[in-house]
Amino acid sequence: MIRSARNRPIALTASLVALATVAAALLVGSAASVVRAQAATANQGAAATKSVAALGRLEPAGGIVRLGLPSTPEAISGAVITRVHVERGADVKAGQILAEADTVSVLKARLAEARADLETARRDAVASVSLAEEACVLADVAARQSRRQDELLQRRLTSDDVAEQSKGNAAAGAATCKARRAAASVAQSRIASADTVVTRQQAELDRAYVRAPFAGRILDVHAHVGELVGAHGVFELGRVDQMVAIAEVYETDIRHVRVGQKARIKSDALAADLTGTVARIRPKVQKLDEIGTDPAARKDARIIEVEIKLDDSAPAASLSLLQVEVEIRR
């Protein structure tokens, strides 16, 4: 018992030393964690300074094109759609007919009339040539008769009156031949004029159709059957086989952006981030268009649009005008 009492201070001292050792270890570990966290924060800050962040949108290369109908004398205040051949989301080829206006029937009738006039002009030309040939043959006959009468007159076998009449018939025949040939030439020129009218009427008819100027996808339909085509046009068409991201870069950051830089595009609507390359920096400063959720963000900020060509357009082909976050690596 006396031996145990003497050993108690020694055991208590050992316990205190062990507790001190554990506390020191915890303090060292905590300090190391703080140092690592600070280092990670510093690395993140350094990484952030090596990229330019901006809001933006996805759109087809070349933008979204609105297709309308040209104004014509038959539709001064606008045309009414009578047929629509495609729907929203349809892929179309260049030159494909997309819709028709109500002026088609009128212009088809005028084209048929012009073609009939052309056929009439061709037949008139054929008739004029035949009449000219007939007149010239008669003129040749009259000229031969006149020469014979002159020979007979020299031999005193005919009278002066008959010879003069024969000579007059020959002159009249020659004049008629010349006139008929001129009329045939005019008839030929009428063919060219009538053919020009047919060409013009065909062009007017073609304008009554809405055709795809290039291959792409119908993104929206603004006019349906029976509706008057307004300022918004009939369709919105885009080249979705090559999509681009339009980043709205603040004017103070544009000095860090160069053509050829790599970029990353993010959005919750995308299954995965998209990548691309800066293809063009638009030469115009304008107001901010894409407004984010930050209430402290400036709504009157000046930006410059930067076009980023996507490496893979398929995931974005059906997401035109989607708001995205863009990170351009410096």
Q: Can you give a write-up of this model?
A:
This protein is of the alpha+beta class and 330 residues long. Among the domains are: 52-66 and 235-329, Elongation Factor Tu (Ef-tu), domain 3 (Beta Barrel), CATH 2.40.30.170; 104-207. It contains three helices and eleven strands. The protein has helices spanning 2-48, 104-154, 160-207, and strands at residues 51-67, 81-84, 91-92, 97-101, 209-211, 216-221, 235-250, 262-266, 274-287, 302-310, 323-329. The strands form two sheets. Strands 1-7-10-9-8-11 form a six-stranded antiparallel barrel. Strands 2-4-5 form a three-stranded antiparallel sheet. α2 runs antiparallel to α3 (160-207).
What is the CATH homology-level superfamily of the domain at 52-66 and 235-329? Efflux pump adaptor protein, beta barrel domain
Strand order, sheet with most strands: 1-7-10-9-8-11
CATH class value of the domain at 52-66 and 235-329: Mainly Beta
Helix content: 40-55%
- List segments where confidence is low: pLDDT < 50 over at least 5 consecutive residues: 1-13, 37-42, 293-297
Portion in strands = 25-35%
CATH architecture of the domain at 52-66 and 235-329: Beta Barrel
**Helix-and-strand structural type:** alpha+beta
Shape: rod-shaped
Helix/strand order: HEEEEHHEEEEEEE
Overall mean pLDDT: 82
For this structure, the CATH topology of the domain at 52-66 and 235-329 is Elongation Factor Tu (Ef-tu), domain 3
How many whole angstroms does the radius of gyration measure?
45 Å
Number of strands: 11
Count of runs of 4 or more consecutive helical residues: 3
How can the largest sheet be summarized? 6 strands, antiparallel, barrel
Intertermini distance: 79 Å
